[in-house]
Design goal:
By secondary structure, this protein is mostly helical. It has 2 domains: 161 residues; 161 residues. Helices cover 49% and strands 6% of the residues. It is built from 15 helices and 6 strands. A 4-stranded mixed β-sheet has the order 5-2-1-6, with helices on both faces. Strands 3-4 form a two-stranded antiparallel ribbon. The termini are far apart.
Amino acid sequence: MSDRVLSRNTVCPKEKREMKGLDLHRNFFNDCGKSLLMQAFPEEFMLLAVASVGFGSDRLGADDEHSRDHCWEPGFQIFSDRLSPEALKDIESYLFEHLPWEYAGFTRTDCPRSVNGIRAWTVDEFFSSFTSFSTPPTQDRQWLLIADEALYHVTNGEVFHDPTGALTQRREAFGAFPDNVWRFKLAGRAMRIDIQRYQMERCLAHDEGLAADLMLYEGVREVLHFLCLVNRRYAPPDKWLPWVVRRLPVLSDAIEPLIARIQDTTDVRSRLACFVEIETALADYVYDNGLATRREYPWADRGNPWWADLRQTVTGDLKDFPVPSWVGVEFRYASQFGLGGDFRGLLG
């Protein structure tokens, strides 16, 4: 590595300590990548988008000193819907070899295609690799095949350069669930929250405190996902769910203190009481903001079936999918697990 060009860009120790990955990527492109691309690939440069998107806490702005032990380095990605994969690979290789190996006091890893290093994609390849769809699904049911986390990865971060607008437009197209899908997912998360509350009560009736805690924290996870949905925000990986939710404008201020109370007490029945308050606050928000209308259900002898009222707002090809009473309960990581792995109904 000694024969490779080193950047003279330096920062003071305090600035280095407080540097965010997204700022590092943006500055690295502006200071080093842009001029190199314009010199070596002047025609191709106007067909390229440059961004920092995908995996990593740095795309959230949630990275800190502890984030730098792996895959944290100067770098950026290039995208095009006009250049061939072979042409993009050539540009990627050139950048990998000719960009500075040290920048702002940080060193690039000597590993091609590292998560935060230099990477080239066709626009179709990038989106299909994360979501299995190169363009947004045309049917509501097909959206259920995409994990929220995958949609977070393709819409996070920042685009630094995009003269054709191809990457930006595709990100915007994937940027939010269609309204009907959104309502279907809200109903699914709401039912899961209600189920976990009910299961926790059952566990405590059997004096199974540990099982009750398992039900509780699965329920808290569903609450965090519900809050992301209400805010029209894709949920990130579990590691960063609380970080994101604390910064959401809608409902976070009301729910965060209740979650803090759950964490602060060791009494499982007090935790249940807090969880019931959370569910009540969410249900009240749904009704108060016109997301659903209260209805009477002869079978609703326990609790408030707010999830059923949300399900009533779903229309189109999700209205009776797969049966009218089914609300799309979502389990870990992706909607498809709620279907037992049978995707045929989604693709039809």
